[in-house]
Amino acid sequence: MKIHLETDRLLMRDLVDEDVHGMFAMDSDAEVHKFLGNKPIATIAEAQKYIDSIKQQYIEKGIGRWAVVEKETGSFMGWSGFKFNTDILNGRSNYYDLGYRFIKKYWGKGYATETAIASLHHGFTNLDYKEIVGIAEEANTASNIILTNIGLIKRNEFFHEGILLNFYSLSKEEWKKSEK
Q1: Alpha helix stretches (DSSP H) within 80-139
Q2: Which of 25, 31, 100, 178 counts the most CB atoms within 10 A of its CB?
Q3: C-alpha dist (Å) from residue 147 to 17, 76, 96, 141
Q4: What's the pLDDT score for residue 1?
């Protein structure tokens, strides 16, 4: 198990099979899935399938969402980080998407922002990404605030499967200018 990032309160590491119960707790919650197509999972097997797909992304793409663990307790809180997106969304494909998802009891404590800032810095500094993208449903106020607060720029809105989404991005050059 590789730890990729560390913040004051959190560790971000590879997802492992032992995260299956935390993943199930998060992804079976309808409120967590409110802005994710309203499709919460119903079984532990579905949670394991999701972990397996992310582990496969580690192998095939060299990147995938990372488990977020509370340093103090060692508790699985959710995931954050990058996914290399090959699907066409908003007329774009083959980009690094920054995302995050947390068990509801961890909402509103700044963890998504903390992991997103750390990921953004890591993506541009250590992984040498040229651009990082974030996408959020227009109605998901919290996620839109996070993406804006970490410096991503809203480029446009688009519809996907009948849902209005906001498309954000930030180039490495734009990030460098904002860091000065």
Answers
A1: 111-125
A2: 100
A3: 29, 23, 14, 10
A4: 62
pLDDT at res. 178? 85
Domain boundaries in the chain? 3-130
> Which neighbouring-strand residues pair with 98?
82
Spatial separation of the C-alpha atoms in residues 10 and 5, rounded to whole Å? 8
Residue 45 pLDDT > 80, yes or no?
A: yes
22: buried, middle or exposed (CB in 10 Å: 19+, 13-18, 0-12)? Answer: buried
Q: What is the pLDDT of residue 176?
A: 92
- Residue in this structure with the two tokens 């690094």, named with its chain if needed: 96
User: Which residue's entry shows tokens 């699907």?
Assistant: 87
**What value does the mean pLDDT take over residues 41-57?**
94
Model confidence at 39: pLDDT above 90: no
SS3 state of residue 96? strand
Burial of 155 (0-12, 13-18, 19+ CB in 10 A): middle
Secondary structure (3-state) at 110: coil
Report the topology of domain 3-130.
Aminopeptidase (3.40.630)
User: What per-residue confidence (pLDDT) applies to 171?
Assistant: 97
The tokens for 79 are: 């995931």
3-state secondary structure of 52: helix
